Amino acid sequence: MKAMILAAGVGSRLEPLTCNVPKPMVPVVNRPAMEHIVALLRKHGYTGVIANLWYLPERIRGYFGDGARFGLSLNYSQEKELLGTAGGLKRVGGFFDETFLVISGDALTDIDLTDMLRFHRRSGALATIALREVDDPTRFGVVITAPDGRITGFQEKPEAAEALSNLANTGIYIFEPELLNWIPAGTFHDFGKDLFPRLAAAGAPFYGYAMNGYWCDIGSLTQYRMAQYDVLQGKVKLEAFSGLKEAAAHPGVYGGEDCRIDPSARLEGRILLGRGCTIGRGVRIVGETVIGDNCRIEDHAVIERSVIWQNTRVGKEARLTECVVGSECYLHPQARLGTGVILSDSCVLERRSEVKSNVLIWPGKVIQAGEIISHNLQEARG
């Protein structure tokens, strides 16, 4: 079976984390988000895959290659200009000669794709959308369905009082090849805004599949951090996470190869440590926390419910609270990061500096010793 991964977007809502990496490569529990999608496809028998690329395409190609080490064949469609979700599909239409799947490369889900395919075939559908009940429909494009599951309408991020549904479009679709005839060639075309409303208005066999299991759109900075917590709490079953083992003497702590944890360190909660991490004397890590490969957490640092990417150093007595820290950063001794801070790649916080809550710091910034930052430090993408 064949599938397409939508991987061309910029991910501007995840800036500054996506200044140096495309959104599908943003790590979720130390693996690129797209790697979890690739593992899900392989699990359900999708072995021929194509991904459309646009923003920082070399980062995706360089990591996944031809897909062989992930157990499938991976091809690419390099877009010179963004074509939209449906336009990107139209460009690679010749790749598909039977029922196929389209899925976002940046969502986090353990959807049962095999059950969704059964539903699609039983319904005799031309197109099927996976739908998920959400508490707040104002954040999503929601779908209106008839009792038999046929889709009758859409609302894009409706006001709460006007919402006619709480079923969100998850960005997971099963199509018949004939659907490609509905998409104009060589132009920008979007599933949600252009194609799907036309299908519904024309009365095409177009159905919504009410999925079980977990689904999260990691499109916002808060949701990105919360998704890590959900994995560590066992709310989502990820193939790429399931093989990890608990560290000896530290229940709930999962460690990669060559991790070194000082006996005096206190690790309390569900914690993931990447390969080659060093946890120093008296370090305290509290709550759901992800620390990437080759990070060094020095003596008596305190980390609470935070996400740290790879090759980052946290100095003595530094403190991080519910924040995200990018790769190649150095937090000098006694530096502080408040709740909701996003510190992008290659940043330096000198001794006793502090970044206040909810501040975003773009790549390569240096915070001087003793300086207190309470506003975003931003620069335009080069």
Write up this protein.
With 382 residues, this protein is an alpha/beta fold. The protein has 2 domains: 2-232, Spore Coat Polysaccharide Biosynthesis Protein SpsA, Chain A; 246-373, Hexapeptide repeat proteins (UDP N-Acetylglucosamine Acyltransferase, domain 1). It contains 7 helices and 35 strands. The radius of gyration is 22 Å and the shape is elongated. The model has no long low-confidence stretch (mean pLDDT 94).
What does the overall shape look like? elongated
CATH level 1 name of the largest domain:
Alpha Beta
The second-level CATH architecture of the largest domain is Alpha-Beta Complex
**Unreliable stretches, pLDDT < 50, 5 or more residues?**
none
How is the secondary structure organized here?
Layout (H helix, E strand, L loop, with lengths): L1 E5 L20 E2 L2 E2 H11 L4 E6 L3 H8 L8 E6 L5 H8 L8 E5 L2 E3 L3 H11 L3 E7 L7 E5 L5 E6 L10 E9 L15 H12 L3 E5 L4 E3 L3 H12 L6 H4 L3 E2 L2 E6 L4 E2 L4 E3 L2 E3 L4 E2 L4 E3 L2 E3 L4 E2 L4 E3 L2 E2 L4 E2 L4 E3 L2 E2 L4 E2 L4 E2 L4 E2 L4 E2 L4 E2 L4 E2 L4 E2 L4 E2 L9
